[in-house]
Amino acid sequence: MSDTKQKILDTAERLFGEHGYDATSLRQIIAAAGVNLAAIHYHFGSKQELLDELILRKAGPVNEQRIALLERVVAQAGSGPLAVEKVLEAFMAPMSSAAEENPQFVRVMGRLHAEGLLPAVVEQHFQPVIVRFRAAMQRALPELPELEFLWRLHFMIGAMAHTMCGAPDFTGVASARGDFRARIDRLVAFLTGGFRAPVSQGVELESAPCERRPSESVQESPASGRRQAETPVPPQTQTTLSR
Amino acid sequence: MSDTKQKILDTAERLFGEHGYDATSLRQIIAAAGVNLAAIHYHFGSKQELLDELILRKAGPVNEQRIALLERVVAQAGSGPLAVEKVLEAFMAPMSSAAEENPQFVRVMGRLHAEGLLPAVVEQHFQPVIVRFRAAMQRALPELPELEFLWRLHFMIGAMAHTMCGAPDFTGVASARGDFRARIDRLVAFLTGGFRAPVSQGVELESAPCERRPSESVQESPASGRRQAETPVPPQTQTTLSR
DNA sequence: GATTGATTGAATCGATTGTTTTAATTATAC
DNA sequence: GTATAATTAAAACAATCGATTCAATCAATC
How crowded is residue A27: how many other Cβ atoms within 10 Å of its Cβ? Predict the structure, then answer.
């Protein structure tokens, strides 16, 4: 690969990770990389295609590791139960090992999520892996109602993306050394607890494989301001790639 | 308040929530609101000040409710233990009730987080409340090491912000009706499980008030690429919610 | 009814964005 | 060495951004 092209990819990865995709201009990239502006469009065609190629070169290995780890976990489980934390671990570990050799790419993913650009990227580069992991998670949590399961995946994505973006404010020097491994360990433990948590009573009105209890004692819920009337909400606006 | 000013605030709130702060131009706002471009700078001074005033008018009531609910929970706990889910509930409920009457504001908060603009906003509008809730959470989780606690707060912020931004892709019509109440219930249950989850062994090397277990049986961990000690996750401990 | 201050309308500012163009340079093959 | 292609350099493109200017309009007060 051309040296210029390589420099552009590396620099873009770093700047996208630090400031986000939209917030990083092509001129910032070429200035930091020490190349000409036209080189970007010559080698990649557009800013969007630069991002695509940037993701492509890293997503491949990560996805392969994910599949390999998952198959290992599934094989060891055999016909028995599948442990949630094992599946989560298989999903997270490749990102953490990728982050330890170069934390930039993981940050880019977190940034993309923050900018609402992740859905399109996921569909393009991660869809098959996501499907398999979702199935594995569902097998690991057979008693969890479908809707609840989807929501908890949603919560997981938020926590995961945010964790990839950065660390809490006052973790001090200990975490600043980029110990992604420990970070992922903490996250997996947290998510495992979340996925295994009992389903809240208030949302069990859905038809799902969840045993109905004979109307437990109604514990007072002073926290909820008003519970009966609910305002309909317009469907989620899909974030677009371009702006 | 001027009618023009009101229209600008409402429209900006909606568009900021739908597309984010940076991605929404002042011209989009004035076009949707049917006012003149100069009106924004006349009434607010700048785009940034428009955002500030937009948050200010909603953050006040939400913060008051949060404090009131928290005090109630603390009072009911007395000198006894403080339940994690009660504290979380007190923190989330005002957002959900605010969202049910107008979902736009909550989405704005989620968007601001995604754009990395939230820290500044939080410091300006939510700092005192955050401090009190953090203290309450710490009291509710006395045995959790400090660093682990901070990380779990970090995870919570990610899940919370993402949940405020939108819903999972395939929740269908059932959830599209904007049942923020149920959404928060699910999130609280999930987070409660996460906060109560046992600390991963791999990160327990910090000095903190965490009872040392007498070296539990080391079960093999093939899933983790390179790790010697695996993390046993026992079934969910005590939970007052259900099951 | 004239005057004063508040508000709005229309045009424009300078800066920045991604992209394109055109020419110069470098590398490769004959 | 020359011709051909690949690559880089410099300039400009059209579009958009937040912000500003200044005159026109509105409302209220004397």
Answer: 10
